[in-house]
Design a protein that fits this description.
Elements lengths: L8 H14 L2 E2 L6 H4 L2 E5 L2 E4 H4 L2 H8 L13 H23 L12 H18 E10 L2 E3 L4 E4 L2 E5 L2 H5 L4 E2 L10 H4 L2 E2 L7 E10 L7 H26 L7 E4 L14 E7 L7 E3 L11 E5 L1 H9 L3 H10 L4 H18 L3 H16 L8 H12 L3 H24 L9 H21 L1 H6 L6 H11 L3
Parallel strand pairs: 5-14
Antiparallel strand pairs: 1-3, 2-3, 4-10, 4-12, 6-7, 7-10, 8-9, 11-14, 12-13
């Protein structure tokens, strides 16, 4: 049989990666003696070489999907893996229906029409599942007591009352089929069960198959974490500011389908915008948001404090502009490390996360930023008084020396006799720095050219004449 080699670069790569995949599948006697011990059942009598197959989805992403510019940025490795496995499964069924009793690995039976089928299958699947989606997280980790709706970052928070419930379908489709292991969560969820929680919503353009690790869901989780990180920064800032304001909090004690009560109540859903009747529950096994054990309660007074003192409007602007500007990305990445720091139980790891968050925020170039520069910048943001700034500089410089002791000398942060006080000081320094950058965002962003905006901003402050 003449081997079809393809007409273009895409087909050449598709044939190569498909042949390798089908070369992993066949009857047991299709494989040499060395491989037979590690074969797994694929479908019926078919076996497959799992060790070789394991890495193929990543090659599929890098060599095949990346030849399709329209989709390459939308597909992550997890979605590529799901798509590749589905492709191989469908090709296997196609070949078996034609050959009936194959006696060799399926690679030997691949024909030109199979390649055309594979190309059409990939493009049709990508087109069908690339759309604008709404991802929803129903949770008790943040509760609205007063406001019915609030926008933080790119997330809309909604109080799930009777009016909101009425907009949802009466039953919600189950996601991944766990019926054998978890029958209780595989049946459709009644919408009334969601009442009393808060719905976090975000709209995302992207690619989503029926898996929990798609680029759409991955993006949504990042945005949800940004929201919670910002709220915890605001909580620390408002609680330690003059005329302090305490955001109300309660300890999380509930959990649904979780092994750690830190995660609280988290139920995820997705639907394609314009097809609201087909809302689907994502029964995620892995991607829980690991957060503080404290749920945050937002009242009307809290909203006023967030707007006036925490510059919520500017933060929302930063989240919108993070798609195409460097400074907003730095701020959000710094927030991500802050969130890791506050949920970390080990003090040394927590301190390292705070150090990384500070360096992310203040880095001035590819070679990183010197500790004394970070200490200078933090002292500028944490006080207006010269004597206080000098005092703060010495304190933060000493604190930042611990980064090198931990990373380069294997020291434990708890060896520091003032561990708890210094950890809190590090947290407050980071919070004040983040709030200072958010407050000054409009001015700093004007400095954003090919040089670093943060660096230019602090040069301006240090060199500004009296």
């Amino acid at each position: 049989m003449k081997i079809f080699k393809g007409k273009n670069k895409f087909e050449h790569k598709l044939i190569a990666i498909t042949r390798i995949g089908l070369n992993c599948i066949g009857l047991e006697n299709s494989f040499d003696e060395e491989k037979r011990e590690s074969l797994d059942v694929f479908d019926g009598n078919l076996k497959y070489d799992n060790k070789q197959f394991l890495y193929l989805p990543y090659a599929f992403k890098n060599f095949v999907i990346d030849e399709l510019p329209k989709y390459k940025e939308k597909i992550n490795n997890a979605s590529a893996s799901a798509l590749y496995r589905s492709l191989i499964h469908n090709l296997t069924k196609r070949i078996i229906s034609r050959e009936h009793s194959p006696t060799d690995v399926l690679n030997k039976y691949l024909e030109q029409e199979d390649v055309y089928f594979a190309e059409k299958f990939i493009k049709d699947t990508l087109k069908k599942n690339s759309a604008k989606y709404k991802v929803l997280l129903f949770t008790d980790l943040v509760i609205l007591h007063g406001p019915k709706k609030l926008k933080i970052g790119n997330i809309s928070l909604n109080d799930v009352d009777d009016g909101y419930i009425q907009k949802l379908p009466k039953n919600i489709e189950g996601g991944l089929d766990f019926s054998k292991l978890f029958p209780s969560i595989s049946s459709p969820l009644k919408r009334e069960a969601l009442k009393g929680h808060t719905a976090l919503e975000i709209n995302i353009n992207g690619f989503h198959l029926s898996d929990e690790l798609s680029s759409v869901f991955e993006h949504a989780l990042t945005e949800f974490k940004t929201l919670f990180s910002f709220l915890h920064v605001c909580d620390t800032f408002l609680g330690n500011a003059q005329k302090g304001f305490e955001i109300k909090k309660e300890t999380v004690t509930t959990g649904l389908f979780v092994t750690n009560n830190q995660t609280g109540y988290q139920k995820y859903f997705i639907h394609e915008i314009g097809k609201e009747k087909a809302i689907i529950q994502i029964n995620t096994r892995f991607e829980k948001l690991m957060l503080s054990r404290e749920k945050i309660i937002i009242t009307n007074e809290t909203v006023t404090e967030l707007m006036n003192k925490c510059h919520l409007g500017k933060f929302n602007q930063i989240c919108i502009e993070s798609q195409n500007k460097t400074l907003p990305k730095k701020i959000l990445r710094s927030l991500d490390w802050f969130l890791r720091a506050i949920i970390e139980e080990d003090n040394t790891d927590s301190a390292l996360d705070y150090f990384i968050s500070l360096e992310t925020l203040f880095s001035t170039g590819e070679s990183g930023t010197n500790s004394h520069i970070i200490a200078e910048n933090v002292s500028l943001l944490t006080s207006m008084d010269l004597e206080k700034r000098i005092e703060n500089y010495a304190k933060y410089r000493k604190l930042l020396d611990w980064r090198n002791k931990i990373i380069h000398h294997g020291k434990d942060f708890e060896e520091n006799k003032n561990c708890w006080e210094d950890l809190l000081a590090l947290k407050i320094a980071l919070v004040w720095s983040l709030m200072g950058i958010i407050r000054e965002y409009d001015f700093i962003i004007k400095c954003e050219t090919k040089s670093n905006a943060i660096n230019k901003y602090f040069q301006t402050k240090k060199l500004r004449p009296k």
